Fold this sequence. Notes:
- By secondary structure, the protein is an alpha/beta fold.
- The protein has three domains: 6-171, NAD(P)-binding Rossmann-like Domain (Rossmann fold, 3-Layer(aba) Sandwich), CATH 3.40.50; 182-430, Orthogonal Bundle (N-(1-d-carboxylethyl)-l-norvaline Dehydrogenase, domain 2), CATH 1.10.1040; 433-464, Up-down Bundle (Single alpha-helices involved in coiled-coils or other helix-helix interfaces), CATH 1.20.5.
- The chain has 19 helices and nine strands.
- It has helices spanning 13-24, 36-46, 57-62, 78-87, 105-117, 130-136, 146-159, 177-207, 211-221, 229-239, 262-273, 278-290, 293-303, 315-346, 352-358, 370-379, 390-413, 418-430, 437-448; strands spanning 6-9, 29-32, 51-53, 69-72, 96-99, 121-128, 139-143, 162-163, 166-167.
- The strands form two sheets. Strands 3-2-1-4-5-6-7 form a seven-stranded mixed β-sheet, with helices on both faces. Strands 8-9 form a two-stranded antiparallel ribbon.
- Strand 1 (6-9), helix 1 and strand 2 form a beta-alpha-beta unit.
- Residues 102, 128, 130, 186, 258-260, 262-263, 363-364 line the site of ribulose-5-phosphate (5RP).
- Residues 102, 128, 130, 186, 258-260, 262-263, 363-364 line the site of ribulose-5-phosphate.
- Catalyzes the oxidative decarboxylation of 6-phosphogluconate to ribulose 5-phosphate and CO(2), with concomitant reduction of NADP to NADPH.
Amino acid sequence: MSKQNIGIIGLAVMGKNLALNIADHGYTVSVFNRSGEKTEELLAECGTKNLKGYFTIEEFVQSLELPRKIILMVKAGNAVDDTIRQLKPHLVQGDIIIDGGNSYFAQTIGRSKELEADGFYYFGVGISGGEEGARTGPAIMPGGDEKVYELIKPILTDISAKVDGELCCHYIGRDGAGHFIKMVHNGIEYADMQLICEAYLILKSVLNMSAPDLHEVFKEWNQGELNSYLIGITSDIFAKKDIDSNNYLVDMILDVAGQKGTGKWTSQVALDLGVSIPTITGAVFERYLSSDKDIRVAASQLYGNGVKPEQKSTDFVESVRKALYASKICAYAQGFSLMLEASRHYGWTLDLSSIAKIFRGGCIIRAQFLNKIAEAYQDEPELANLLMNSYFKDAIEQYGQAWRDVVSTAIITGISVPGFSSAIAYFDSFRTQTLPMNLLQAQRDYFGSHTYQRIDKEGTYHTQW
Ligand SMILES: NC(=O)C1=CN([C@@H]2O[C@H](COP(=O)(O)OP(=O)(O)OC[C@H]3O[C@@H](n4cnc5c(N)ncnc54)[C@H](OP(=O)(O)O)[C@@H]3O)[C@@H](O)[C@H]2O)C=CC1
Ligand SMILES: O=C(CO)[C@H](O)[C@H](O)COP(=O)(O)O
């Protein structure tokens, strides 16, 4: 009997849709899930001649052609190690395991080393796009041995999203590089979502906008430079009615944010690598703070909800749009600075222009302005920060006044804008020639003899203050 081209383990949202996507592209796919029900459901619902289901790991592995290519789409963490442990006794040298979940990149580096020592290949492949992306074309970020990549490249590139005829799948680097980029993608996703939520809060609080008004505003914004998947779905969300209450559904959803940890990892790694990403980290903190609902309700009774905003004309909507765009530039600048530093630290030689191009299709942060980011890194691959590029400089300068007006209105009236305000603070620190760290260095030297450097001569100094 002929063997199948590729196998997928894990048939929840992502695995199931990836399996169907791969089968649609003419490949034969074997599927396996820890609990057999999901396999049965998939075969019953959407069985195609290219898809075969198995109920033991052994039969699943035996069904695959050599070298075997097995995609893991299981929960990140222990589930990946459990699955590898079960697979290993049935594999032969040269077989390839492709971890397509949101695994932590440092674990991917460890797993790669361990499996490669046993003669297997391990790929950490970031896949983004949620259910729809997995089914119709996700963004794909593969990390692993570049020569072995040639064996899985045809399948990955066939199923990936394409933008302007270009693939949203590009080899990233060895071992954990693909998962690192997916992690930072998610960190940027957190910041982008937080900024959009703040724009919503400002428009709702200052201009009293209702869900249908906001639907129109976001729909219009999606026609211009803010055009992106997240702005598009936000517009759709504001149009959705709740069947139970007949209110708009967004107004019926509890304001407590969930998270699975990739934003937290991005922030932790940035602290380790010494890169400032306050808008991304602020977005993580805001999700934490949101989950303390009871204390927030008590505090709002204690302190009130801020002061009533002064009347604003509808021009204010345009100012919020500009403030959102400027803040978004800063958030992406932070994410890309982190990738640049990781590239140096881990020796990955990341191609940031290609990475921006991958993000243009299939994934959650896909946005028109990624073309500008791709161009910026194409012109200058070692660009220290996106804010040094002329397109972004012009945008920030043109929108600077509106950005400051919106943030000051929010702060004066007590509207919570941690994303907008951290973005502006990041920009102001970034462009400040002399920060007050001279005083900080003096303080450190005063209490701890930590020494300081001088502006007028070389060397290290200590003073008896
Ligand atoms: N959902 C999304 O939008 C996206 C998810 N991802 C990532 O892709 C991966 C898959 O995501 P998703 O499809 O949402 O599924 P989940 O993250 O919800 O994981 C569920 C799957 O993992 C399996 N599983 C859980 N524990 C184990 C275990 N110990 N051993 C073997 N299998 C186990 C489940 O099997 P069982 O049915 O038996 O419980 C099921 O198939 C995750 O890493 C996720 O972070 C990436 C991009 C987007
Ligand atoms: O990887 C993804 C998209 O690219 C997931 O949708 C993401 O994990 C969602 O993250 P969280 O649950 O932390 O909001």
